[in-house]
Amino acid sequence: MADELLEVPAGDLCPYQRTMGLVRERGSFLILRTALAGDPTTYDAFLRIPELTPAAVDERVSSMVRGGVLAEVITPGGATGYRLTEAGMQLVIILRALGDWAEEFGATASDRPV
User: Fold this and answer.
1) Domains in the chain, start-ordered, CATH in brackets?
2) Residues 37-58: tens digit of each pLDDT
């Protein structure tokens, strides 16, 4: 089984690298969390994330739309909003599991028993 996990398909970027590319940038988790809270989420809601500049919000949201994690939708008021796609919802589940793993095993190397 471990060998199967390490097999990487041929190509420019393996699926793991492509996925991590969507979430590795600072603030990506905040964008996902904000999108999860709204249905749909307006661009202004993303701009209210204090840790992110407007340029960072624009880059992260655009990247997640291109990556199929967020979809642009029209809100009932006629504004552009964003909603997590099915892929985005599944990614949130994976990231929650990753967070659980980090809580249990994410100590720094110097903190871990040998």
Assistant:
1) 16-105 (1.10.10.10)
2) 987 899 999 999 999 999 999 9
